[in-house]
Task: structure prediction
Amino acid sequence: MEPIEIFKRWFNEELKLSKARIPTAVCLSTVGIDNFPNARFVSFKEIFDNSFIITGPLNSRKGIEIENNDKVALTFWWTETERQIRIQGVATKISEGLAEKYFKERNVNSQAVSSICEQGNEIDNVEQLEKRVLEKVLEKSKITRPQNWSGFSIKPTRIEFMEFKKTRFHDRKLYEIVKGEWNIKQIQP
Result:
């Protein structure tokens, strides 16, 4: 079975059991502009064209780091099924059409925050910023996607699946692209 199909099956199994408020959370790791690794949780949107989609501001730290070095990693940890999936791949900016689609799917509070806030920048008055966001929400008008809000398509080059076992003899399989084809290896726990 292809690794993308395994991912989809595992993801759906976890979603059916998950009690997490945000079951689509995934850890995105980038190489910082200072060459230190940088990790944060983002929301996984879907698999599109055999790539993993995440969204957010292009001028945020993650956006700047991906622009500087397109090699990224995603790590999924699923509590209910006791599985982990590690993905390494290359990130590219998604199309304007996809960015519009994902922005429209966001709730109004998320749209308002994205249209007003400059993610990761320092702020002196958080209450004033919160007031501006609330005013935007209360306007009840359509919120336009900011030009700096988009997303990334992460084309995997490696995917590792790990199923945890009570014996600690975890089952680990590593899929890697070799000469354009997925190659599978069983690796030690």
